[in-house]
Amino acid sequence: MGSAHFAAILLCVCIIAGGAIADSQNGTNGVSRPAEVRIGALFTFDSVIGRAAKPAIELAVADVNADPTVLPGTKLSLLMQDTNCSGFVGTIEALQLLAKDVIAVLGPQSSAIAHIISHAANKLQVPLISFAASDPTLSSLEYPYFVRATQSDYYQMSAVASIISQYQWREVIAIYVDDDYGRGGITALGDALAKKMSKIAYKAKLPPGAGRTAIQDMLMQVNEMESRVYVVHVNPDSGMTVFSAAKSLGMMSSGYVWIATDWLSAVIDSSGHVASDATENTQGVIMLHQHVADSGIQQSLLPKLNSLTRKGNRSSFSSYTAHAYDSVWLVAHAVEQFLSAGNAVSFSANQNLQAIKGSSLQLDSLRVLNNGDKLLEKVLQANFTGVSGQVQFTLDRNLIHPAYDILNIGGTGFRTIGYWSNFSGLSVAAPENLHSVPLNSTTNDIQLHSVIWPGQTAEKPRGWVFPYHGKLLRIGVPLRTSYNEFVMQDDGPDGVKGFSVDVFKSAISLLPYPVGCTFVLFGDGLKNPSYSDLVQKVSENYFDAAIGDISIVTNRTRLVDFTQPYTESGLIIVAPARETESNAWAFLKPFTFQMWCVLGLLFLFVGTVVWILEHRTNTEFRGTPRQQIMTVCWFSFSTMFFAHSKF
Question: Which residues are in the Ionotropic glutamate receptor C-terminal domain (predicted)?
Fold first, then answer.
């Protein structure tokens, strides 16, 4: 009996132990964990971004598999496909990658490929975690399975617009590559500049893979325009040709302003000899760099990357390195939570692809990831600290706390002149130091440090010049039939003359640059034209300006801006001035002779009245008739100069 009882207890212990072991290998709901999960990576291996991302991705996969707390009992396998800088090849490679039952794809690197593949990812429910595609339009609700693990160009262009506003430039020329990446970024730049009361004066687009000749032709064209502020938003693999061509054309000298987006910092962060060439051709350029704060995670990662470099891998640490490394961990954490929630990794056939008959493309190999929407949900709920900083997403699927370093290239390197973040704007303090202080803190009083501009000058460039072949200003001039002293038609070179014309010419002659203009008569010459119609033509940009005796009234000020009046307004009388000789009788000139006679009679009348009232009682008014007459005359005369109180 005792032996049987002991055997029963031992059997229960074995069953419990066996159940514990089974639970450790299964999910919380009894779903078995897979021994292996596959993720894909899609980028161009031999590119500036690819050389920075590839070792980081491989290292991150190795670190995930070595960490017992993440995906225990499950190996994370990596499948990489090379897009070879081709949209067509990249699309084919992406479809081949999706056909290998991957649960997530790191990439694509190209925004153009991301637009195409996102449609396939939506149907197959496979999340795309891109560490490089920065086109703002990819955040559209049209691409729910596209997750951007890098910063959107929407924020980068806001930083560029803040720099332009800081130096009070009103017009810029955008040089960009004519693909989804370039067009999306420049559209965002135009919107950001409009908020700062600035604009893009001209969009100079380059075809993808443009040669040096095409770039030089474009630069010669923009060099004849008014603006001297250039924003360069091109691909890092061919972008340096823009600056080398600009230097050969003398466009890297004093007076020019060059602002490059983060593609240039990616080039400089790459291999050493490329960086040397880059800094030599970009002296004085302002460039942006995605902000990656120094951290212990980053410091521990650098020796491993350096070890890969010594083994022959061409790599360097850049913001793309950090985002690529964090992308792997983002997928690993999401898959861990996905499996822990009792979800199984399984695939099923796509009914739409099954319905396609007679195709030799083997489209039936593209299968749908079951519960892919739940995996996407776990990805978007990520919240951990990675190499690039805090990895957490906003409601529009962008990383929180976007920030950029603002760098100025000079000498053999570059220096940080400030930072930009969507929290504080421009600042000389690091963004991570500003989240805990009020925005009105004195740490943000100085928005940017001094800049060494092209031509090795510290003086801020004006940002524009008078164009070589600029359009002449059209100045509207009313063709009056009366009061021709202000404006009138003339047979001279200008075609007009008058006081208003002279004032206008004198004003523009004071400008430090030439201004070409042509005077255009407004009216038929038979009657005075409507000045309100003339003002309306200026507001409609038919005329660039108008001159003449134009009255400033309320309705007109709502349409156009007026200069300060150069003539007195109100009712005035113009009379000729005559010189007269002064003499001792000049005091009589204020009144006429008749007026003086009337005043004399009034004085005598007053003296007579006083004599009538006073001579009976006042001895001063008595005496001989001659004395009394003298007293009356003296009293009348003295009233002009004395105030009599008594007599």
Answer: 474-637
